[in-house]
Structure formats: C-alpha cells, structure tokens
Amino acid sequence: xxxxxxxxxxxxxxxxxxxxxxxxxxxxxxxxxxxxxxxxxxxxxxxxxxxxxxxxxxxxxxxxxxxxxxxxxxxxxxxxxxxxxxxxxxxxxxxxxxxxxxxxxxxxxxxxxxxxxxxxxxxxxxxxxxxxxxxxxxxxxxxxxxxxxxxxxxxxxxxxxxxxxxxxxxxxxxxxxxxxxxxxxxxxxxxxxxxxxxxxxxxxxxxxxxxxxxxxxxxxxxxxxxxxxxxxxxxxxxxxxxxxxxxxxxxxxxxxxxxxxxxxxxxxxxxxxxxxxx
Length: 278
Hints:
This protein has helices at 42-46, 71-84, 98-109, 131-135, 141-145, 150-159, 169-179, 184-195, 203-216, 234-242, 258-261, 263-276, and strands at residues 5-9, 12-19, 23-28, 49-54, 91-96, 114-120, 196-197, 200-201, 220-225, 247-251. The protein is α/β, with parallel strands linked by helices.
C-alpha cells in the first residue's frame, strides 16, 4: 500500500491513501480504526481500480473537530472527500463495520455517485453488538473507558480476529497510538452513542436506512466472518432478508476483519464481484 498523505477536505486535514487506475473504489474503516485495516486489500484492488482510502473525520490521523458525529455527517464527509480528490465517477463503496453503515448512508443520500456496495461485517443489520461498545453509551463510564491503556488496546485487537496470530504486537501498538490521538474520545463516543445504547444498536436508523436501500436494489456484496465477536454472523441472515438481491459470503474460522484474516480469498471475491458489475 502507498504511504498515506494528507489533504484538506474543506477545513478538515484528512489522511488518506490513493493507488491504482481504473474504475474507482472507496474503502471505509470501522469505529475507532484507520485506513491500515485495508493494507491487505489496497494492492490487490489497485491492480485493476483507482482506490481511495481515507481516515474518516474524527478517526485515525484525520482531524477531529467539535461537530455532530452522525451517519449522515460521515456520509457527507465522504462526499466532500471525493470532491477534494477530484473523483466524479460513480464509485464502489467498500465498508467494514461502521464503514459499512456509512457506505449504506452515502448510497441512500447520493445514489447517483454509487455503482456498487461491498459491506464487510457491516453495522446496520441487527441489535447485537459487543458489550464494550454498549458500555460506551453509559455517561461517565464511556469517558473513562476512552483513557488510553496498552492492555485495553491489545484486548480490542484480539477481539477483532478469530486466529490470534493476526493480533500482532504491531497492531496492538498501532491501536494504542490511535487511542492517544487528541480529541479521539469526543468523536468515538459521539458516533457510538448515535449508533446505539446499552441495549445494543438502535433500531430506528437501521430500519430507515435498509428500507431506503432495499428499494434501490444496488448491486451489493455482503461478507462476514463466522466467528465475528463484534457484530455476530447471525446478522448476515438478516442482511440477506432485507437485501434479497445481494450476494453473500460467510468466511469460516474468521473474525470481524475478513479483509485481513482471509485477505487472498476476500480480494478474489470482491474483485470478481466488481468485475461482474463494471
């Protein structure tokens, strides 16, 4: 993957990677994460496509201004990001976890700018979510939980994978580095509390968004890890119910980041899907 660079998206200093040529694809990471979650994906996709990978506003090393952090707000940021890089063609949106919800929201708001969707262990298909994210919704406790702690960072990384060999010290150190970024708690907690509460992911935004998108029948690929500890794989069944036109793929012995844990297989499935919908 190319080295990340910075550009201004309006007043927001934004870290991103661009690579390759061809039809455009935009890769969106999950809550509290960064563009590094796509390090195994970018080279394979960039052999055939123009790939854009931003750190979303409020996350990674992108600025974290004091603004409302909502799904529509994050989708608008992606729109402004595409304008900043000069991309005007319809894109394939590939979103993991929170990034999948942002991708769906973007498609609902700007349908003319979307060619296809690839949703990777995406938020939006069920109430169940890891207890750590539910605890963040509790006032004061959520704020205390955001205090950087190497042990907590390592634990978070371990929860993302089924095979512990992927929870490397380097990934733990990067998670701790992200945890120490100024104003991270504000954006992280704002997004987490918009998406859900103690009982899990809010039903309101999920129902509204999936109903809007179901009518559009966009070419959609939905993939999941069978041992996902963050958003359980049972959500894939609901996803295929609300989007009956979608293609689905369940990766066995895989956690929340199949793009890393099953990189070769994942890349082949995504490239095949994009090629069929070019």
